[in-house]
Amino acid sequence: MQSTKNATNKTASSPKCKKTRATSQQKKQGLSPRSKDPVLNRTTFKTSREMDFFSEKELKNQTAHNIDEWPLVIIKELVDNALDACEEGDIAPAIEVSADATGITILDNGPGLPEVTLQGALDFTVRTSNREAYVSPCRGAQGNALKTILPMARVVDPENGQLIIETLGKRHTIRCGCDPISQRAVVHHDIVDLPKCKNRESRNGTINQALSCGTSIRIEWGARPNSEWPFGDHYPHDDDFARQFRELVQGFAVFNPHLSLTLNWFNKRTTWEATDPSWNKWKPHKPTSAHWYELAHLERLIGAYVTHDRDHDSDRLVSDLVAEFDGLIGSQKRSKVLEDAGCHRVKLSDLVVGERLDSARISGLLKAMQVHTRPVKSTRLGIIGEDHLRARLLAMGVVPESFQYSRKESKDGLPWVLESAFGWKGDESEDWRTIISGANWSAAIKNPFRSFGATGEGLESALTDMRASAFEPVVFILHLAHPRVEYTDRGKSSLVVGAKKQGLS
Ligand SMILES: Nc1ncnc2c1ncn2[C@@H]1O[C@H](COP(=O)(O)OP(=O)(O)OP(=O)(O)O)[C@@H](O)[C@H]1O
Ligand SMILES: [Mg+2]
User: Fold this and answer.
1) Ligand 2 centroid to residue 320 C-alpha, Å
2) 333 versus 39: which is more confidently predicted?
3) Is the C-beta atom of 146 inside 6 A of ligand 1?
4) What's the domain range around 99?
């Protein structure tokens, strides 16, 4: 210690040190060390990541869509959530999408949005999802959508923008703002009790018994001249925009035989009745399969559970985790898995060594789970089916004789089902080509199959090659069910499709 002190003193009196002192004096005076030119001594500031959600530019990055497409983002994300929630509650979904001069509302008959999840969504420093860490064919998978929609109202209308959520007997009115000095989120969240569920009136004044419980989410802005919407240049009455809006909503009716869907577009109602309310598909509350996971996925899930348990002063057994997987609920099989993996009476926290997950042990566990279970057959994911697609296409004006349907599914490896349907609207039709495409029963805003195959050219050019160009009155439907869909962007607008990534051939 002493010697260090001496050494320091020695340096302090050296000529080199004099030079250093001169330099810092120069800096203090705002002069460059070499010349007398002024310099800026930058200070490193910390800015809250919350601001990633509070400007048009940042929300554009988060959603991967320009502001004029945000009404479509709202529909897609909120209908996705509504469907996932209904399926999770084993409820045949009935959803109403309403658009009026001052807002867009999505109403579902699901089990309700828990307050704790809503509070999580309002914490812009974390992601909140009951789907993100699991590998499964769900619509939502990132825990980001609600977070982007919450501040959207305020970004498009800083004066009057708000989100109104009615669920589980409460009305939440949420106004998100931002402190201009600290650049931190300021959230005003008012909660009031709703009158009894049965008598609840929807915001646009109609009482719909079927939808009287569940969740209603309304993004609202102030009234504007000519009923304009505050999303870029888009007037809601522009024909092209109204068509896009309707086609997106219709896409959900096309991909979901169990869904009863109503679009209330400025008091003009269109309903697509469910063709099969008890339609069977893989639902979000069904156990996931060990065969859908690679090591990195299982590590992510274990990491998420360990963190959750630490926050709740608990520590579950590996056995409890294993029991959540398809085919491993029975104690006999679970016992074999635990024995093979050396995890009898082992706690999840024991799979953490120092600051890291024990990859070798987790890899052994995954292998054992895969050895002792059967892979899930593709058909268990859910088949939309020829009858449903025929009904929807004929309702769109397709000539019955022109209807064609095809289905492909994987024979081994990861399960997947690819369904397509085609129809022609006849010579007299003035319509152009309609493409409705999507993955895991969710309609896409833009065709997500924009690049695939050896040439990477994508669906549009493949259709043009088949003489179904953009000007032909044809309808083409393409849907992929897959437990591990990967998107290139957070807006879920472009799928990674290829033999290697998806196991598709
Ligand atoms: N209508 C709803 N009813 C019940 N729960 C809901 C509803 N909407 C959202 N949730 C809950 O809120 C969570 C967050 O939704 P959010 O859309 O932000 O994320 P996600 O759906 O998990 O993933 P993604 O960001 O890919 O959409 C969901 O995981 C779900 O638990
Ligand atoms: Mg979602």
Assistant:
1) 27
2) 333
3) yes
4) 51-272
